[in-house]
Amino acid sequence: MNQESNTLAVIMGGGRGTRLYPLTKERCKPAVPLAGKYRLVDIPISNCLHSGINRVFLLTQFNTASLHRHIQKTYHFDTFSGGMVEILSAEQTEKGDSWYQGTADAVRQNMIHFADRDHDLVLILSGDQLYRMDFKKIIHQHVRTNSDVTIAALPVPSDQVEGLGLMRVSDDLAIEEFVEKPTDPAIIENLAISDALQASMDSPREGKHCLASMGIYVFNRSALVESLDNEMTDFGKEVIPSLLGKKKLSSYLFEGYWEDIGTVRSFFEANLLLTNPLPPFNFFAPKHPIYTRARYLPASKINKCEVDHTVIGDGCIITGATLKRCVIGIRSILLENTKLENVVMMGADSFETHKEIKRNAAKNRPNFGVGNNSVIRNAIIDKGARIGSDVILDPANKPENYEGDGIFIRDGVLIVPKNAVIPNGTVL
């Protein structure tokens, strides 16, 4: 077996996703829609498949139904490839009945499911990051350097490292020190990349930088089993620091675009960046497409609209609308004189029939989408939302952490939750 086919990929589904709430109210983080037609989980799975890794496990425990449906309808492999994408949710066993207590504990609880799969390496990934990476490169470096653990690392300016795990490495990329989320300026200064290593990068950077963990690990199988033979619950906080001086730890230098979609603001901005003519993450890569569910939707219909820097998914009907810097998801319906600016709209899971539209009218309930003469700015509209006519939604000058009338404000972004109903004439 080559090194990639001898590797299992394990994608962490994350905890409750409180920082992404209410986008995670009814779904886990990997299932959150992205870029008009994808899900966050499509990113790491597509990176795996392009890297020759087709045995993937997803570890989840909160609100998994949406993720299950997406995986089952998207990732199918022929009998002869040996490929699969399998969801492993927290479960009661003879050894315990607790939910995952952290990233390391999640992997530990599922080791029994990995044991009967032929593999020498385990690639551990996050399910809520936006990036492209050829995992063959980190795997080949891991084998070439005879490392026990290799951690993907991103150069980050020293004044922007808050909340990140940092590592100090030698010029040959061996990890000499690892500190999870340091706040002491003296410690951060001590972890800065050496001038020699910084000069050797493909794109030399000005100013002090540190190497931050991307939460992407390659473990030798035996090293992973040994490192989890304890009660440690988290890789970054406990497991990795405990291995220093005991195992050979190396860093893999990654210099491309990477975004941790951990907050409402980061999710919002990462989506809006996709509307740029050449965004930092480009879905238009013909040799490396991002895979997702094939829905066989019709092409979108755009009638008498003003559209500027906007991404529009399949199956949309947009009439007489003005769209500026928006991501419009599948099956979105926008009626006349609607104005959207800096909006991420996720669309709907189905079209409404004429009978359903008549029933909505009888109940004075808006249809899926946005009604006539509505104005929405700096907002995320989740799937299945019904926003009536003459509605004005804008988080400007509103209190942070606002909740009311089915509307939320988080990180300065207004959120209309999944399946919310916003009546005609609502003004916020």
* Overall pLDDT score: 93
CATH architecture of the largest domain: Alpha-Beta Complex
N→C terminal distance? 59 Å
**Overall number of structural domains:** 2
Radius of gyration: 23 Å
Kindly state the percentage of residues in helix: 10-25%
Structure description:
- With 428 residues, the protein is an alpha/beta fold.
- It folds into 2 domains: 7-273, Spore Coat Polysaccharide Biosynthesis Protein SpsA, Chain A (Alpha-Beta Complex); 301-422, Hexapeptide repeat proteins (UDP N-Acetylglucosamine Acyltransferase, domain 1, 3 Solenoid), CATH 2.160.10.
- The protein has 11 helices and 27 strands.
- The mean pLDDT is 93.
Question: Layout of helices and strands, plus pairs?
Answer:
Blueprint: E1 7-12, E2 33-34, E3 38-39, H1 42-50, E4 55-60, H2 65-74, E5 84-89, H3 103-109, H4 111-114, E6 121-126, E7 129-131, H5 135-144, E8 149-157, E9 165-169, E10 175-180, H6 185-190, H7 195-199, E11 209-220, H8 221-227, H9 235-243, E12 249-253, E13 258-260, H10 264-273, E14 301-303, E15 306-312, E16 317-319, E17 322-328, E18 333-334, E19 339-345, H11 354-362, E20 369-370, E21 375-381, E22 386-387, E23 392-393, E24 403-404, E25 407-410, E26 413-416, E27 421-422
